[in-house]
Each structure stands twice: as structure tokens, then as C-alpha cells.
Design a protein that fits this description.
Helix content is about 45%, strand content about 15%. Helix 1 crosses helix 10. It is built from eleven helices and ten strands. With about 270 residues, it is α/β, with parallel strands linked by helices. Helix 11 links the parallel strand 9 and strand 10.
Length: about 270
């Protein structure tokens, strides 16, 4: 038994989709969530910048006594989790990757689609997943500029977000794709709208529950599952704490009353 908290971070509020799934699966675990809203979006940053930012966030979470670090961000996983594992070899990390393998298994038409940030969509990592798990499938790979920021600002039902979705979903709507992977942790908060726009013939998949299950598996392997009768949930951000609390409350549909501010420049990267 290990009642220390699970540490979790994202470029912003999107990783709360992972937080929500983990809380449901592991209701006795305390959790610390860090939103790097001061540096969002990650999809426009270089690998070197991401190595530095994620290293500082990891150090902060470890200073808060986190027992495992969940990288609840596709872009950070793709570009930085290897670096983090080398920099912090004693720390277990759980990452998020586009659900290409699941899509390839579930398609009936042979055409799959992946929605992700521009950085993830053009990454060698995603290209490798497609080569490995979907070499015989037609893959529609859409880099969705603007969607991450829309969720970050809490604009999940606005006209501007509708326009973004219509533009990004157009290649899928006119195709034979019957399965779609949500390759950014921000996108599950748009799931109902995406589903409605693509129609009943298309099934959506996101990594929230698989990541939560993998986190449970890692903790179980280490005999580190928690048994907190009253688990504690703490939130931190490098952005505006009040804005984070307001948007998080909207997305989670439960009150997030406060978040702490962290200046990452004051945190070492190792």
C-alpha cells in the first residue's frame, strides 16, 4: 500500500479527461494535477522546449511526493516521455499515445482516422504506430490546429469551435472511415459534438480509460495502490489559477474551487 498521490500533467486542461477516468477507476487514490497553461499549446513547441518544460513539471510533482507520473498529454508523450525516463530513471511514467492499434482492430471498412494536434499528426512517432499497427489500412491523419486552445478556454459549445470542428472533420465525413481516434486529451470534452457531426456509423475511441487501467497496472506491479478513505485532489497551473478553476469546473461538471500557481522558471528541470 502506498497512499502518496498520483502525479499527472498536461499542457493545460485537456488531461482532466485522464484525471476523470483515473478517479473513476481508482477512487481511493489521491491525485495532483498540473496544467501547464502558461505554455499551452504544446503542439507548437520544439522537442527541446518540451524536454525542459516537462522536466520542470516532473520535478515539481516529485517534490509534492508523487509516486507515479502520468503524462496526460499526447504531444508530451510523443516528444518527451523518453527523455523523462532517462532523466528520472527511478520514476514510473505512464504516457498517452494515439489509439492506432485499437482503430486497426475495430474498423470494418479498412479506413481509420486520427484527430490530433499538428505536432502529433506530423510526428515520426505517430507515423511509426501507423506503420506497425495499420500498414494495410487507409489512414486519415488530421492535425487539428485551434481545437486544443478552444477547449483550453472552455469554448466547447461556441460557434467558433463548431467552425473548427466542421473544417477538421470534413475529410472524415466524406470518407469510408468508421472508427476515429481522439489523439489529444483535450478532444474527449468535444466527444459528443464530434459524434453528432460524424453520425452513428462512426465510432470514437480515446485513451482515457486505457491510460487509467495502465496506471492501475503500474501501481499494482509495485504494490503501490492507495487506500485513502478520503482521497485528496490538488490542482496547480502555470497559468491563471482562477481561469483554470472555472474551466475545470465546467469540463468536469464538479466544483474545482481553487488551484495553486507555480512559476516553472523557478523549478529545476532535473
Amino acid at each position: 500500500m502506498d497512499n502518496r498521490p498520483i502525479g499527472m500533467f498536461d499542457s493545460g486542461v485537456g488531461g482532466l479527461s485522464i484525471w476523470r477516468a483515473t478517479r473513476r477507476l481508482l477512487p481511493q487514490e489521491s491525485m495532483i494535477f498540473f496544467a501547464d497553461s502558461g505554455h499551452v499549446p504544446y503542439g507548437e513547441k520544439s522537442p527541446e522546449e518540451l524536454h525542459d518544460l516537462t522536466g520542470r513539471i516532473t520535478r515539481f510533482l516529485l517534490d509534492q511526493d508523487a509516486k507515479v507520473i502520468v503524462v496526460a498529454c499526447n504531444t508530451a508523450t510523443v516528444h518527451a516521455i523518453g527523455h523523462l525516463r532517462e532523466a528520472f530513471p527511478e520514476v514510473p511514467f505512464v504516457g498517452v499515445v494515439p489509439v492506432v492499434k485499437t482503430l486497426a482492430r475495430r474498423t470494418r471498412t479498412g479506413t481509420i482516422a486520427v484527430l490530433s494536434t499538428p505536432a502529433t499528426s506530423s510526428s515520426p512517432y505517430l507515423a511509426g504506430l501507423i506503420r506497425e499497427f495499420a500498414p494495410d489500412k487507409d489512414v486519415i491523419n488530421v492535425g487539428c490546429d485551434g481545437l486544443e486552445n478552444a477547449v483550453e478556454e472552455g469554448h466547447v459549445r461556441s460557434r467558433s469551435t463548431t467552425a473548427l470542428l466542421e473544417r477538421h472533420l470534413a475529410p472524415i465525413a466524406g470518407s469510408a472511415a468508421d472508427v476515429v481516434g481522439l489523439g489529444c486529451t483535450h478532444y474527449p470534452f468535444l466527444r459528443a459534438r464530434i459524434k453528432r457531426m460524424l453520425g452513428p456509423r462512426v465510432r470514437l475511441f480515446d485513451p482515457s480509460r486505457p491510460v487509467a487501467r495502465r496506471t492501475r497496472e503500474v501501481l499494482r506491479e509495485r504494490d503501490a495502490l492507495g487506500q485513502n478513505a478520503s482521497p485528496e485532489y490538488r490542482f496547480y497551473t502555470s497559468g491563471d489559477p482562477k481561469l483554470f478553476a472555472r474551466v475545470a469546473t465546467t469540463l468536469l461538471r464538479r466544483p474545482v474551487r481553487e488551484a495553486g500557481y507555480v512559476d516553472l522558471d523557478a523549478v529545476p528541470s532535473r
